[in-house]
Amino acid sequence: MNIILLGPPGAGKGTQARHLVDTRDMIQLSTGDMLRAARTSGTEMGQKVAEIMDSGKLVTDEIVIGLIEEQLTTQSGSGFIFDGFPRTLAQADALAALLTKLGQSLHTVIEIRVDDEALVQRISGRFTCGDCGEVYHDKTKPTSVDGKCDNCGSTNMVRRADDNADSLRTRLMEYYKKTSPLIGYYYAKGDLRPLNGLADISEVTASVEAILG
Ligand code: AMP
User: From the candidates 18, 39, 87, 122, which is the catalytic residue?
Assistant: First the structure.
């Protein structure tokens, strides 16, 4: 079962993807995570994309399609969760072609709907455990012990360079200009399942589970 989690930055795609990895043995393919890993590993591609990512703009289709293709052809499990990919119509077409080539298909596209004001608040307080990936928020989900991950005990907490007001404005603009047309694209294909991403995390998880069956 291959699924796409579609929604603006801060909608909760990563949080829901992590839940599905834990409970269904699915494989999370986050192009944002792959690009961040490329940056820290100091590769030529990583250096090339660093500035673009910090500004909040999208990196080229060619780069992210290449990253996804590499993962699809080298990993296998109980299905892929595409998190933050596709983000353009060209990426969506490329994904369809790649899946067909591998004899696979797309099960469903879950659109996580949230309003813009909530996104700004969510993103501006967000931080993550650098070791296990658990996501926290200064106001809505702080760690029980200051600076220490509840999940794995690590004190390696990280804040994303692009989680600031300027980058967020650009990221939202990129979302509305380039990614939101995918909602119509997948609706027309009969694959789209929207849900309310403003509910509590556990309620959103329940909605995801209900959709996947
Ligand atoms: P994310 O972690 O999904 O919010 O992505 C962080 C940043 O990585 C984005 O703002 C883009 O600069 C870049 N990025 C991630 N996924 C894609 C994609 N599918 N297409 C283009 N750029 C991407």
Answer: 87
- At 70, the pLDDT band (50, 70, 90 cuts) reads very high
Is the Cβ atom of 172 under 6 angstroms away from ligand 1? no
From 33, 39, 58, mutation site for ligand 1 pocket: most ligand atoms within 8 A of C-beta: 58
What would the pLDDT profile of 146-200 be if each residue is shown by its tens digit?
999 999 999 999 998 888 888 888 999 999 999 999 999 999 999 999 999 999 9
C-alpha angle 89-92-94 in degrees, rounded to nearest 5: 110
User: How far is Cα 99 from Cα 69, in angstroms, rounded to an integer?
Assistant: 9
Is the distance from CB of 167 to CB of 54 less than 8 angstroms? yes
CA 32 to ligand 1 center in whole angstroms: 5
Tell me how far CA of residue 34 lies from CA of 2, 41, 82, 83, 156, in angstroms. 18, 11, 12, 11, 19
Q: Residue 195 and residue 211: Cα distance in Å, rounded?
A: 9
The long-range contacts involving 142-151, CB below 8 angstroms and separated by at least 24 positions, are none
Q: Under DSSP, is residue 159 helix (H, G, I), strand (E, B) or coil?
A: coil
Query: CA separation (Å) from 181 to 14, 17, 121, 185?
Result: 21, 22, 24, 6
Average pLDDT of the chain?
94
Cα 2 from Cα 80, distance rounded (Å): 5
Q: Which residues lie closer than 8 Å to 114 by C-beta, 6 or more apart?
A: 7, 8, 10, 11, 12, 122, 197, 198
**8 Å CB contact between 81 and 29:** yes
